[in-house]
Amino acid sequence: MVPFEVLIIDEAAQLKECESTIPLQLLGTRHAILIGNERQLPAMVKSQVSAKANFGRSLFERLALLGHKKHLLNVQHRMHLLISSFPNKQFYNNEIFDGQNVKERSYSQCFLQGKMYGSYSFINVPYEKETVDNKHSSKNKIEAFVVSEIVAKLYEVMFL
Q1: pLDDT, tens digit, for every residue of 15-58?
Q2: Complete DSSP assignment for 85-131
Q3: How does DSSP classify residue 26?
Q4: What are phi and psi of 14, to 5 degrees?
Q5: How many other CB atoms sit within 10 Å of the CB of residue 79?
Q6: By C-alpha distance, which of 96, 33, 29 is closest to 63?
């Protein structure tokens, strides 16, 4: 195998530090680029003992804590403006800008009629009854029915 001089690890903030050492052992690696976001999904361990010992920390997080330079990609191109405003305020101190494509009118599409079907919706399902099975999984047949109806309407509008 031809040696890699540059190693790129995507979603590096989700990868436990010990797991990052595996690709770093490739012969010939001179540079490593870690791509990730420690403000999103973190590396995880289930054991409380391991968590307490910081075994759930990513190499990305450790290097950031040690003061290594990181570059924030500060333009998002996927979320509608109304959706991006929440994480931008809550997690990024308004450092994220919306790309021109999401600002265009054509990006706002409403597939179903009614005020409740905007870019995002919070739908209250009254009379819900959640049940738990013997494996501790919960289910709610009424909410499942409502979701099924919405998906059916979307399918109708988009494909029929």
Answers
A1: 999 999 899 999 999 999 999 988 888 888 889 998 899 888 99
A2: HHHHHHHHTT--EE-HHHHSGGG----SSSTT-SSS-----TT--EE
A3: S
A4: -90, -15
A5: 19
A6: 33
Amino acid at site 158: M
Q: Are 24 and 7 in contact (CB under 8 A)?
A: yes
Phi and psi at residue 16, to the nearest 5°: -60, 150
- How far apart CA 74 and CA 99 sit, in angstroms, is 9
**pTM above threshold 0.85:** no
Q: For residue 93, what are its two tokens?
A: 């101190």
Structure-token pair, residue 58: 């990513």
Q: What is the pLDDT of residues 52-84, one digit of tens each?
A: 998 889 999 999 999 999 999 999 999 989 889
Question: Any idea which residue has 């995880």 for tokens?
Answer: 44
- Look at strands 138-140 and 130-132 and give their pairing: antiparallel
